[in-house]
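tool=predict chain=A
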Amino acid sequence: MNNRFLNTIHSIVKYYNLKINPGSNTNVYKSLSKNIEILIFNVISIASIISLLNNSNTIQKTAVSMVREYINEKCNVPQMKKGGTSLPSDYFGAINPVYNENNNTNDVLGIDFTSGIARAQIGGGGNSKKYKLTSTDKEEFINAIKNICKYYNLKIGSDCIKMLIDIIVENMDCLFNYLYMASKPITTDIIKKMIKLNKKFEIFK
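tool=predict ok
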């Protein structure tokens, strides 16, 4: 890990308006850069292993689609204001009874009169933000992907690279949207705890 994505991280932190503990500013940036490197390596490694298991010397679109399925738990950011009440237990990986197989009522769009909601939202992250990679970001990501593919002695086309970058950015946005909702200035401990406790971030480990 050589913190190659520090410039990207600085841009992302500014975009999300993240509050970072002044005493650990440099360490937080390095930690986030390391996590992005891990994310990229893991995503490409999964695609590479799938390709190798299928006796292919090239990463194909089918392999990339399987990667998406493998890490397909979308980031559904809870609709709460920054600095609000504590996050629900399912944020930390606990089972939510609402999504239990025994909760099989037919009316999944019931009216909530107390809160004034006519129809509950199904899926989607409502208030989540999406960072748009700069040309420099894309170049860094493409080079990283190609280097990992070279490590596995695999070829990859531009279409598959684009698909993999989309997967990487989706998971990256997921992490930063959750960090944005932190009620305290971000420290390396907060980042580590969030990734450790939340099943959504398995791909960062």
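Strands lie at 58-59, 155-156. The first helix runs from residue 6 to 16.
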